[in-house]
Amino acid sequence: MEYRITAPLDKNVVKKLKAGDYVWISGTIYTARDAAHKRMQETLDKGQELPVDWKDNIIYYMGPSPAREGRVIGSAGPTTSSRMDPYAPRLLDMGLGGMIGKGKRSPAVSEAIVQNGSVYFAAVGGAGALLSRQIKKAEVIAYDDLGTEAIRRLEVEDLPVIVVIDPEGNDLYKMNAGNIIS
Amino acid sequence: MIREIGVDEITRQIRDMCIQANHYLSEDMVCAMKEATEKEQDPLGKKILGQLEENLKIAGEEMIPICQDTGMAVIFMEIGQDVHFTGGDLGQAVEEGVRRGYTEGYLRKSVVGDPLVRENTKDNTPAVLHTSIVPGDQVAITVAPKGFGSENMSRIVMLKPAQGVEGVKQVIWDTVQEAGPNACPPLVVGVGIGGTFEKAALLAKQALTRPVGEKAKDAHIRSLEEEMLEKVNRSGIGPAGLGGHVTALAVNINTYATHIAGLPVAVNLCCHVNRHVKRVI
User: Which of A10, A32, A142, B233 has the CA that lies 20 to 30 A from B186?
Assistant: First the structure.
């Protein structure tokens, strides 16, 4: 199936999504990758508040290249999600609506997706120039000192992604794996 | 005759090559991507390959890096033994070229100074520089920015001689299988067989800079490349790991003599953004 959806996510819409669906996302999403996740974890460990309320929001695992003058953002494709696996379940339990990245997730992340009715999307890795066109606004909202790894708020229009892990726990990569072509 | 080359020329060339490599793929890669799109039968796979071709077009036309991971700069310099560098320190000139390329070229700074402290150096230095001395009075420079999505899925295995070619095939297969979608297929699979521990890794990296479509010189290695490419493309992993017939564009294997007791094998994966620019000065 193909869907056009908006972010922040509506749980009733997420429920319909199935692994393999092609989805265009419009609305507000946030970037965070390795260093921002590590800092968020440390913040939570200290009992402090995070810079963003993740409820129903989407994190895009992405660190852009610098924008040229007059441009919104540089190249802006997904990074490998598995490096965020140690941090993701905790954020999902706090209400994180969805994640966009590329590559496999751990069983713990998959379980947390099911428990929280969340979703994991893949954007096409290495298509950073193409994907940057769907980003209409970008603003650093936290951890500015982390440079490319800062948390950014993005306004996106029709960002193309594919559902990899749906709220029932079906995993598109596993469905394809072992599917040897003779 | 000694030929003098000013190190500022090296800085200038490397600056330009960093920018060029990150916005335009070499002709062999452009052709390979085009062929892949034609060959792919899976509808989603074909769509993704079409997007990747479109991505290359946008990157070149609008000067947006092909991928936001503009890599760690891996640089090979083959230096003619009759060359004398003047005007400064060659190593520093290389670093200055990388620094200028990444800052003036709007490329992402992805390098941390200490691997454990992990503070960004903010100019993408240092580079990883490999020099070799060759006959002649020219300098051949290859700049190959390497992304880490695929670098992280690479491996080296010290096989026993008894494991032979079957062992080598298994290592290549296992590496590609385990990488799956993470290394951004369609891949270029660089393989180094032989040498010592570090030589095998270097051979694998150099294999990635060999133009796609240029086969190994030895017949048995050439047939191993062909066999493994066919096998990898039957894995079903496909473009972006979402299923299909094109998992790899090439398997490039470089070999070297080794010890009677060993059979080192290194597999260095590269994503479809296999960047390498070569210039001879």
Answer: A32
Domain that holds residue B246: 149-273
Q: Is B56 exposed, middle or buried (0-12, 13-18, 19+ CB in 10 A)?
A: buried
A182 in a domain, yes or no? no
For residue B273, pLDDT beyond 60: yes
* Residue A182 pLDDT level (bands cut at 50, 70, 90): low
Are B55 and A129 a contacting pair at CB < 8 A? yes
Q: A2 CB near a chain B CB, below 8 Å?
A: no
**B271 and A126: CB-CB below 8 Å?**
yes
| Number of domains observed in the structure of chain A | 1
Chain B residues near residue A150 by CB distance under 8 angstroms: none
Q: Residue B35 corresponds to which tokens in the numbers above?
A: 């062929």
pLDDT(A178) > 60: no
Q: CATH number for the domain including A110?
A: 3.20.130.10
For this complex, say whether ipTM is above 0.95.
Answer: no
DSSP codes, A119-156 = EEEEPPTT-HHHHHTTEEEEEEEE-GGGGGGSEEEEEE
Q: Look at the alpha carbons of B128, B109, A64, A56 in this order and tell me if their dihedral is positive or negative.
A: positive
pLDDT tens, A81-136? 999 999 999 999 999 999 999 999 999 999 999 999 999 999 999 999 999 999 99
- Structural domain for A22, as ranges: 2-176
**A140-157 average pLDDT score:** 97
Considering the domain boundaries, does residue B215 fall inside one?
yes
A157 found inside a domain: yes
Q: Chain A, 87-126: which have a CB under 8 Å from a chain B CB?
A: 102-104, 122, 124-126
- Residue B147: both structure tokens together: 């992304």
Residue A181 falls within a domain, yes or no?
no
Residue B249 included in any domain:
yes
Contact B122, A147 (CB under 8 A): yes
Q: Are the CB atoms for B216 and B179 separated by under 8 Å?
A: no
Q: A178–B236: do the CB atoms touch at under 8 Å? A: yes
pLDDT digits (tens, 9 = 90+) for A68-80: 999 999 999 999 9
Number of domains making up chain B: 2
Q: Do A173 and B181 touch (CB under 8 A)?
A: yes
B92 and B118 part of one domain: yes
Residue range A41-53, pLDDT digits in tens: 999 999 999 999 9
